[in-house]
Write a structure and sequence with these properties.
heterodimer, A: alpha/beta, 7-stranded parallel β-sheet, two-stranded antiparallel sheet, 6 helices, 9 strands, globular, B: alpha/beta, 7-stranded mixed β-sheet, 3-stranded antiparallel β-sheet, 10 helices, 44% helix
């Protein structure tokens, strides 16, 4: 499962993790836009307080393990390969590095129908092209309801790009994902 | 799931490049090479990977353009300033004990990191006692790096990183402005040796006290990473230092046992075996 978010994302991802069951086995990759100078470890510590799943800062070639949340590091793209994560310093995509599109497109390529994309609050359109790639590969797309989002632009961009499998509050999405994964 | 046909095309492209031009990208990390290949396909206004294969095989100029896409990694001077602080405190004191210090900076691309190292080591008092060998697969970027010229518009960013990395002088002491270019002090270039070297297919060529190879291995798959780490290890003197990118790690590699961790966060290691 890949979660993409930008403005307001730390709170939204925290809500998502808090609402998922402790037994949630599906690995989660979180791609949140952050500044290159973001202090290391702060986001991880914050999120770890809200979940029993292991929260780690992703490193290059990190194997993907169950019940683990991988955070994309600031100023790198994260790409999802079959069974592991790869980082890159390729140019920012739509001014973003990490780019949600890059993560979703690579994850769609590697995991196809078994992938779920979750797009939460954000003030730009990153993630819409990636969500389309996920749908083309047979995966599922879930979107935070724009009214539930601190910034609605990112969820709205996804909703206008694809037909999502679910649009709901963060807790509503967590309930659906928790029951099927 | 992976598009089997496109996967086949990609393998044929990389095989074709290897057989025709000798560049071996076959074990590069698949997901990022795929993105870079598609960028070239769209620039060339082609529709398929096979279409690019045909053009690359028949048109060496297209190969040059693709080589640029596949090999050029844009970086900044003093990227990760905390690394340069750790270099000054944890590595330089040991380097000072050698009469002469050889440093290797493989995958130097356009040279931002090489010049950063040259400045940091000079300020650490190693001037005249250090030579930095900067190598890259791409002959054109090596030639450009040797000139020591960077766009003036980047100096603000470079200066901020330099200061954050523990720089001790006005950064502008190191370059002269000519038009929209900042030309770095030729006496810095005197301590640098630029050469074409392919980490995948070329062997070791010297013994080094420090190898700085940051954010190069991320473009390789696991098995190629292990081969290149083997080359880097063989290129180090016993107790020589290896610096990787801050999100790279020996943890997942077969070589973890041959190195001690000097600074876990900045990914500075020391060869022990």
């Amino acid at each position: 499962m890949v979660v993409g978010t930008s403005w307001g994302g730390l709170d939204a991802v925290g809500r998502l993790l808090a609402a998922l069951p402790d037994s949630f086995g599906c690995p989660i990759v979180v791609v949140q836009h952050r500044g290159a100078g973001s202090p290391a470890g702060v986001m991880r510590t914050n999120l770890q307080r809200r979940t029993a799943l292991a929260v780690v800062d992703a490193e290059d070639k990190e194997p993907i393990a169950p019940s683990t949340v991988y955070l994309a590091p600031p100023d790198y793209h994260v790409l999802v390969e079959p069974g592991s994560l790869a980082l890159s310093l390729d140019a920012p995509v739509a001014y973003s590095r990490p780019s949600i599109d890059v993560a979703l497109e690579s994850a769609a390529e590697s995991y196809g129908p078994s992938l779920a994309a979750v797009v939460l609050t954000g003030a730009n359109a990153d993630g819409a092209a990636g969500a389309a790639a996920v749908k083309r590969a047979g995966g599922q797309v879930y979107v935070q309801h724009p009214a539930d989002a601190e910034r609605p632009e990112m969820p709205e961009a996804v909703i206008s790009a694809v037909a999502p499998d679910g649009v709901d509050t963060v807790e509503g999405l967590a309930a659906r994902l928790g029951s099927q994964r | 799931m992976r598009d089997a046909l496109e996967d086949l095309e990609l393998r044929l492209l990389l095989e074709g490049i290897h057989q025709r031009y000798g560049y071996d990208f076959r074990e590069y990390a698949r997901s990022s090479i795929r993105r870079r290949v598609w960028r070239r396909i769209s620039e060339e206004q082609l529709g398929t990977v096979s279409g690019l294969l045909e053009r690359v095989l028949h048109d060496p100029a297209c190969m040059d353009r693709l080589l640029g896409d596949l090999s050029v990694n844009v970086t900044t001077m003093f990227r990760d300033p905390s690394f340069f602080r750790a270099l000054r405190t944890a590595v330089v004191p040991v380097l000072r004990t050698y009469p002469f210090v050889r440093v290797w900076n493989p995958g130097c691309s356009s040279g931002e990191e090489t010049f950063s190292l040259a400045i940091a080591l000079r300020e650490a008092g190693l001037e005249g006692r250090v030579r930095i060998y900067a190598t890259d697969i791409n002959r054109d970027v090596v030639a450009a790096a040797r000139a020591g010229c960077f766009p003036l518009e980047r100096m603000r960013e470079f200066t901020a990183n330099y200061v954050a990395g523990g720089g001790t002088r006005p950064f502008s002491d190191y370059y002269e402005i000519s038009g929209d270019t900042a030309r770095f002090d030729p006496s810095l270039v005197d301590s640098l040796v630029f050469a074409q070297h392919n980490l995948v297919s070329d062997g070791e060529f010297n013994e080094f006290h420090l190898v700085v190879c940051r954010n190069v291995l991320i473009y390789f798959d696991r098995s190629l990473q292990d081969k290149v780490l083997d080359l880097l290890q063989r290129s180090l003197v016993r107790f020589g230092f290896l610096a990787l990118g801050s999100k790279e790690s020996l943890r997942f590699s077969a070589h973890a046992g041959s190195f001690d961790e000097v600074d876990g966060r900045e990914k500075i290691y020391r060869r022990t075996a």
